[in-house]
Amino acid sequence: MKSSSLPSIVEPDNFKSFVKYRKGNTRDDLLSVQKKIPYYYKHYISFDKDIHKIRPNKLSCPEKATMIHAYESYQSRAIKAYRDLLFEHISTCPYCGLNETAHLDHYLPKSKFAEYSLFTNNLIPCCYKCNSTYKKNSYEEGGTRIYFHPYIDSIDTYEVLRFTIRWTPKGMSMNYGINQSSGLNSETLKVLKKHFKHLELGKRYLQLASNYLSDMKPRFSGHYGASAVSVELQRALKSTYEDALSEFGHNHWKTALLKNLKSNEEFYDGGFLNA
């Protein structure tokens, strides 16, 4: 999970590029919507963290269909350039931090909010799995947002992703979750907990953590196991953590994992042999 600034796209002026080479009824509908776009975009921005409370604006059925069609005109030079700019701005999925961005998610779904089909603030570059397998058209549940919004929720300076590890008679137990003591405001924490649950990030991160530890176990054993130089392993884990923090930020599965391990005496004092 990672926040982002908005790309350098000037709204609502950008909408003009989607109208420029259109003809006939499509052009007429887009010109009609263009007159309302400044109000619609200001309306969206004014809700800030409460965008789930926005209600659809009153576009006519032809206008709605035209807006969606304009967004889906992937052969349009203006649309292709727009999409490319968004993907260049966010190249790794901000929802999970795992995969390259391949889809543009309409945070407020275009089927219901066609007026925001081409609004930069509502288009989140993300991976196929987050967009198509998990999020789909959902965005609200029980009067609150379900998903983190990278342009609205500023989380990068907070350690909101937590990893824990413990040893039981049956072996090692690992877990990812949202850190309630991160210092982030309670409303955003509620959103992140729902986001974490609905995208099944715990399960997805644990699989990667298990694979990572399995791959690293021979190296840990070969370099540190025989001589039991735990301080050397601790130093190596600290260095690897600092590299992950610099590359991925606080709220990445590998950073959270290594943050725990570098300070986990039981792990670097031999517990890694059970990984």
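That was protein one. Protein two is written in the same sequence-then-structure order:
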Amino acid sequence: MPTLSRINLHPVKSFDAQAVESAVVLPSGALEHDRRFVLCDRQGEYINGKGRPEIHRLRSDFDLSARVWSLRIEQTTETHRFHIDTQRAELLAWLGDYFATPVTLMENPDAGFPDDTDSPGPTLISTATLSEVGYWFGLDQDETRQRFRANLEIEGVEPFWEDRLVAEGMGVVRFQIGEAEMLGTNPCQRCVVPSRSPTTGETIGAFAKTFSGKRQATLPPWAPASRFDHFYRLSVNTRPVNSRPSTIRVGDELRILEND
């Protein structure tokens, strides 16, 4: 039986994940506190891993209840802690110095700042998929997890099982985890971030080309081939079914309900 084995929240978009035992799926589809905050430059553009590889060298821990953000530069020992309300100016000054540009911090507690606004729910992948993809590049499971940054991990299934949550054509797959019903919408298109070390930003050469070749060669028979206009795709994007909050917990079973 497919079982939820891990829930990863990224309190600040593009920064480190934090594993939790349970999470609330908000009416917007987002997990509560996931990508709740985002850094922006003076033009209002996101400061993220796609455009700023130096972000990978920042270690981040966010105490959501205390609203304290702790930051440390990789290979240093000093941790800098900021209350994001009472020490906002100091926080932004420190980050502005690090990125060599003025920054602002935006917050959206209701929907966060998803990449896919059409499917703003949690991204989902199987732990077996992470192991298989890691094998392709000589990476351990945890590093592969950090590179692909999915919210939900499912165990008890084979690699690429999550492709079952995508339908042919423009259809969706309805499924349930715990109290939450979701729709699997499409295989997630990847960006440059998985090619980089999550701690140094160092890039694996020809990563996307190698990945795409192996993904195509290993595409399982249950994968909806029509949804792969290219093969640099991994994990499944989702959107909500219900307009009320619902809770998911590690250990919950995943049940496929129907295809629409």
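Residues 3-31+113-259 form a domain with the M1 Pyruvate Kinase; Domain 3 fold (CATH 2.40.33). Keep this in mind for the problem set.
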